[in-house]
Amino acid sequence: MAIWQVDFSIIDKNKRYDDEDICYWVKEPNNAFDIAFLDKCESWSEDIIQYGDLQKTCIELLVENEKIVEINVRLDLRTLTKELLMNVIDYIIRLNANVYFQNKIVIPSVKNVCNIIINSNAYKYCNNPLSYIDDLNEYDGS
Asked: Which of 53, 99, 100, 142 is a good FRET partner for 12, with 20 to 30 A between their CA atoms?
């Protein structure tokens, strides 16, 4: 993942925090391949169906035994438009799903996804790359 991307998983709306494998779809979501707003691209893995460029905004569908078992999203904050963001949120809602980000289940809405973006390292980097790098440089790590 690139430093300018925010990534999160799309999870079944019925999943709870204490589910062992929260990102795993037991029942394949309906219309998961209905991603007309991104072009289907060649993936780095034969087990992943990829829509969009991996270095930009993309959606990856992990497939096991010809069934979708995981859905991941990467948002490129350098080029993200309101229209593209709305398309991603609408896609999540159509799947009857939620967002899973940093061990939190988030209901898909413009406000909630924007909060994810604003609180991400990608946003900090895109907002001020030099300050972000300076902050990393000051991190002790011990």
From this structure: 53
Domain that holds residue 108: 5-138
Let me know: does 35 contact 90? Beta carbons within 8 Å. no
Cβ contact 5:24 at 8 Å:
no
Provide the b/e sequence for 114-129 (b: ≥16 CB within 10 Å): eebbeebebbbbbeee
Per-residue pLDDT tens digits for 55-95: 999 999 999 999 999 999 999 999 999 999 999 999 999 99
Total domain count for the chain? 1
What count of other Cβ atoms lies within 10 Å of the Cβ of residue 140? Answer: 4
Other residues' Cβ atoms within 10 Å of the Cβ of residue 91: 23
